[in-house]
UniProtKB/TrEMBL annotation:
GO MF annotations, alphabetized: hydrolase activity
Organism: Pseudoalteromonas lipolytica
Residue positions binding substrate: D70, A71
Organism domain of life: Bacteria
The protein's name: Inosine/xanthosine triphosphatase
Family according to the record: Belongs to the YjjX NTPase family.
Function: Phosphatase that hydrolyzes non-canonical purine nucleotides such as XTP and ITP to their respective diphosphate derivatives. Probably excludes non-canonical purines from DNA/RNA precursor pool, thus preventing their incorporation into DNA/RNA and avoiding chromosomal lesions.
Amino acid sequence: MKQTLRVIVGSKNPVKINAAKHVFSLYFPHHTIECKGEDAPSGVPDQPLGEDETRIGAENRVKYCQDHFDADFYTAMEGGAEQFSYGAATFAFVVIANKQQFSVGRSSNLPLPQPFYDALLAGKELGDVMDEAFNTVNIKQQGGAIGLLTNHLATRESTYVQALTLAMAPFSHPTLFNQ
C-alpha cells in the first residue's frame, strides 16, 4: 500500500493544482499524491507588479495554508509582471514549504508587448488583457498568456512545473541546504 503525501496548493486554479500534483508525483513516485487547492489570500493586488510583490503574494498564500490546513507540503504560485530595463515581462514566483523548510523559486520571463504591460499599470489583470487581445475566455485557468504568446509551445502549467521542480531541490538535499 502506497503512503499518501498530502499537498495543499494556495489556489483553486486547476492549472496550479495540476502543476503541483505533477511535480510531487515526480519527486515522490512511491507515494499517492493527494493534492488539494484552497483559497488562500495573497495579501497583494490581484495583478502583482514587481518581483517583490509577486514573491510576497506566493509566500503569503503558503503561510496562510500552513496556519489553516494540515499537510505534508504547502505550495503556491503567483504570477506577476515587471518593467525591466530590456522590456516588460511576466513571470511567476513559487513557494514550497513543509514543517522544516521553505523554498522560493521563480519561473523564466515571458516578454510582454508594452501595451499589455501598460494595461496592467492601469489596473487590469493579465488574464483579462489576454482575453481581450486574443478573444478568449478565462485563459488564466487554461494555457495563460504563455500559451497564447508562444503559440501553445509552452503553457502556464509547463512554466509552473519547471519552477516547482527547481524549487524542490532543498527538499531533496536537506543536509546541504540546512547547514
